[in-house]
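**Tokenised fold:**
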Amino acid sequence: MPSPTDMAGVGIVQYLAKFIPNLSDISDPFRKRLKCDIQELKQLVSSAPVLRFYNVDEPVTISVDANSKGLGVVLLQNKQPVSYGSRDAKAYLPDSNDKLIDDELDISYIEKQLPISSRKIAEIKDATEADENLKKLGSVVVSGWHNSKEMLLDDIQSNLNFRDEITVIDGLLYTSQCICIPKSLQQEMLVKLHEAHLGIVKTKQRAREILLWRNMNSDIENFIKNCSICNKFRKANCKEPLKSHDVPSRPWTKLGADLLEFKGKH
């Protein structure tokens, strides 16, 4: 029988307690030691960084931080973590008792990471301000999404799948790391994306790195399919025409056979 390591092991011995004199005195040091271990475990379980249960009656603190490698967020109550998050996170603070502790994120740093000039950034801001659909979408993002889909406008309903990713920063709408392009600039963006006359797949990959608008993929496909230069130099995959035999004038005039190998002979 191996040495007991928990109360289950002691229980095996307790089953025979009436046959063993002074068993309680003998096992007392083990029980005390186990009790100390349990108290230590209770302390570890009830202290950070172990998660605590969420209490609807206590105020919430949301702490976020970001760097060049990622984004992190922790939801706290009474300075103890309730939940952790990373990568894509968005805070909703419906109660005035909730408190947000955010990282001092420099907007100019985000813009510097985009392969877009500051002049073009300013142009996109002006076009976004003049775009009615993006203005409505930005207002919904800032004020909060309505719980009922029917209460949203048709143009905004199409963005419901991305609502946890859409943010408004300094007059620009972002979906993850991509800028939402207003309608008036979409044709210009298509021209710039296809300057090198890449194929459909490569052009889509290039666009998804920094840009986004509704039906962007189909717009790229149609633009490239109608590109005169691409159509002019596109390889023509013509099939070799079939060559049929002359129709014989009477039966058995022409015979044909398949070649095969049998016992090393053809």
Summary: Residues 109-233 form a domain with the Endonuclease III; domain 1 fold (CATH 1.10.340.70). Confidence is low (pLDDT under 50) at residues 88-96, 100-107, 148-153.
